[in-house]
């Protein structure tokens, strides 16, 4: 096949991706980033840890597309064969790279560990490629360019892949573009993709402006973007119109995440927060403390998984017996008790049935109550997610954070 201008392909490597032991989130992330940069991504392929198979994919995909990004297979173990496969596909040999070796040694210096003999393999990359530093892991990546075709081989660990993409791959890709991409991103919680899609359709988006909607654990991310400078203001106008239509369900219009918005609200209002969690088992507290400086606004968490612990912090036995642990009454009492016990201004609670077992006709798997207690009183919300255990817990975490966000918006009003 002939080269297709401005297209990119993704090759995810690892038997664990094919067997379902690991979900491939890397391809989704890389694809979204490439699209925002203005590249078309017509293909994402998953390949086993087999050097000849990987080499064949690299040869074919690199010949058909301007960009090929692989992730995985750069570790020190026997099944990490991406270096070997890439060298085969490029028709070169593996050579020792002092830059790749230095990247690996810096990792061991940071962690206080000693490299083993198997780590020596990570110093070798295909001849003619440029080593890409890994600032948080042991596996350096590498970049190869020939006749306008670029190959980037990145680690498979998501955090390492994202760091390397941001620090080394994106600048190269941006330099290849004829024009800058202008993007407006809205994060939304509390409405459906179908409603958002209908609202975007009604906006009559012109040719030259692209749109995308992605969902992650209840949060919808909407993007408007263009590489046409004459349409930059149009992108802004469309994003603002959509935000106005979506109202308070909009978390942010400037790319900030839900937890970043909540953290800023708490800081601006000089409020402290805490959580009382059952089905999420500390995930809300984790999200609130993932940001640096969280001690300015977060005091602590109570994880009350059993009815006994719920009762110990102040939930009434009568409510637990009459209404059950998964109920609005218990959610409200959990939040109120946490606010009192932790001495915080704002407290949020979660209680539900994460699954896959434990549901009934009255209380199905995915049923979750989120409670809130703050200076303006208490409230609760009911959700029925119906996903798997991981989804139900993560969506409930986002629901708890979003309830804080919306209640704190009221605190700002006179």
How is this structure best described in words?
It is a single chain. This protein is of the alpha/beta class. It contains 14 helices and 17 strands. It has helices at residues 15-19, 26-37, 51-64, 82-90, 98-111, 158-176, 193-202, 232-246, 258-268, 283-289, 307-312, 317-322, 328-342, 389-412, and strands spanning 4-13, 40-47, 65-71, 94-96, 124-126, 130-132, 141-146, 149-154, 182-189, 210-216, 219-226, 250-252, 273-277, 298-303, 346-352, 367-374, 377-384. Strands 2-1-3-8-7-6 form a 6-stranded mixed β-sheet, with helices on both faces. Helix 3 crosses helix 4, helix 9 (258-268) runs parallel beside helix 14 (389-412) and helix 10 (283-289) crosses helix 14 (389-412). The longest helix has 24 residues, at 389-412. The chain starts with a strand and ends with a helix.
* Rg (CA only): 25 Å
The percentage helix is 40-55%
Show unreliable segments.
1-5
Strand order of the largest sheet: 2-1-3-8-7-6
Please state the average pLDDT score.
93
* Termini gap: 64 Å
Looking at how many chains there are and whether they match, the oligomeric state comes to single chain
Report the count of strand segments. Answer: 17
Largest sheet: 6 strands, mixed
Shape: globular
**Number of helices in the DSSP assignment:** 14
Portion in beta strands: 25-35%
Structural class designation: alpha/beta
Quick summary:
40% of the residues lie in helices and 26% in strands. The chain has 14 helices and 17 strands.
């Amino acid at each position: 096949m002939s080269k297709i201008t401005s297209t990119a392909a993704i090759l995810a490597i690892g038997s664990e991706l094919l067997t379902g032991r690991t979900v491939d989130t890397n391809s989704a992330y890389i694809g979204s980033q490439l699209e925002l940069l203005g590249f078309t991504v017509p293909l994402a392929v998953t390949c086993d840890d087999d050097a000849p198979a990987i080499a064949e994919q690299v040869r074919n995909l690199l010949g058909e597309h301007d960009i090929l990004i692989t992730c995985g297979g750069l570790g020190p173990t026997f099944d990490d064969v991406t270096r070997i496969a890439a060298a085969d596909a490029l028709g070169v040999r593996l050579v020792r790279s002092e830059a790749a070796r230095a990247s690996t040694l810096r990792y061991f210096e940071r962690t206080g560990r000693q490299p083993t003999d198997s780590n020596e393999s990570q110093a070798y990359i295909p001849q003619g490629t440029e080593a890409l530093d890994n600032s948080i892991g042991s596996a350096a990546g590498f970049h190869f360019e020939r006749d306008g075709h670029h190959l980037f081989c990145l680690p498979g660990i998501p955090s390492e892949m994202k760091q390397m993409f941001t620090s080394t791959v994106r600048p190269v890709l941006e330099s290849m573009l004829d024009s800058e991409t202008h993007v407006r991103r809205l994060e939304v919680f509390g409405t459906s993709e179908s409603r958002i899609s209908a609202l975007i359709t009604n906006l009559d988006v012109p040719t030259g402006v692209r749109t995308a909607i992605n969902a992650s654990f209840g949060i919808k991310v909407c993007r408007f973007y263009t590489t046409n400078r004459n349409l930059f203001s149009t992108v802004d106008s469309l994003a603002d119109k959509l935000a106005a239509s979506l109202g308070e369900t909009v978390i942010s219009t400037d790319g900030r995440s839900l937890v970043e918005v909540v953290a800023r609200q708490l800081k601006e209002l000089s409020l402290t927060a805490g959580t009382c969690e059952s089905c999420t088992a500390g995930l809300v507290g984790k999200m609130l403390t993932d940001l640096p400086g969280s001690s300015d606004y977060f005091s602590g968490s109570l994880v009350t998984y059993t009815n006994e612990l719920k009762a110990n912090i102040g939930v009434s036995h009568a409510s637990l017996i009459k209404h059950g642990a998964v109920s609005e009454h218990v959610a409200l009492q959990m939040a109120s008790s946490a606010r009192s016990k932790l001495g915080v201004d704002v407290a949020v609670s979660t209680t539900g049935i994460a699954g896959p077992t434990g549901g009934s006709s009255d209380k199905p798997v995915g049923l979750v109550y989120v409670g809130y207690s703050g200076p303006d009183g208490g409230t609760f919300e009911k959700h029925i997610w119906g996903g798997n255990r991981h989804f139900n817990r993560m969506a409930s975490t986002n629901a708890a954070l979003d309830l804080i966000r919306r209640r704190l918006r009221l605190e700002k009003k006179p």
